[in-house]
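Um, can you check?
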Amino acid sequence: MMATTHALAGMALAGVTALVAPEYTPIAVSAAGAGGVFPDLDLYGEHRQTLHYPVYYSVGAVAALAVALLAPAVGTVALAAFLGSAALHSVMDAFGGGLELKPWLATSERAVYDHYRERWIRPRRWIRYDGAPEDAALAGALALPTLALSTGRLQTAVYVLLAVSVVYTLVRKPMVHVTERLVDTLPPTVIDRLPARFTEDFTG
C-alpha cells in the first residue's frame, strides 16, 4: 500500500482521542501520520524489513498506550500514536502485494518481515499493489474521519496526502515502464552499483 494510505490509516485510528481526550487529538493525529510513514523510510534499504516490525511495534504500542492512559501528556500520547500507527502500517503491508517492482504480476511471496518469527509473511493481495485503484479508494475512505475531526493545518495535510495518493495512482504503472526503459540504457557498471531489488525485475 502507499505510504499515504498508511499515514491516513494511522491518523484515522488516532482520531479516537477526540472521543476521550480531545485536547490531545491534534498531537495524536500528527504523530500517527508520522508513524504511518516511518516504516517506509527503509525503502532504499531492505524494504519492509529494516524498519517494519509487525510484532514489536504492536507490543511497544500497547505498552505506550498504557503509559499514556496512566500519565496523559503530549509526549506519552504522541509516542503511543506514533508506535500504534507504525504497527498498523507493518501489519497492513501483509494485506497488500509483494516486494516485486511489478507487483501486479504477483510473483513475490514476501510482504513484510516478521522479526519475532524470523520469516517473511506472505502477501494477501487484498490491495493488489501500492498505487492500485483500490489503494486510492481506501486512502479516500480513511481520510474521512480525520477530515471530519480536524481543521486548519491538519485538514490541509489530509488533502495533500489525498492529492499525492491520486497522482501516484495515476503514474504508478507508467513510472515503472519508463524506469524499465531507462535501465535498459544504463551500462552494466552503473547497474552493478544499484541495489539489486531496483533492477532485478528489469534485467533478469
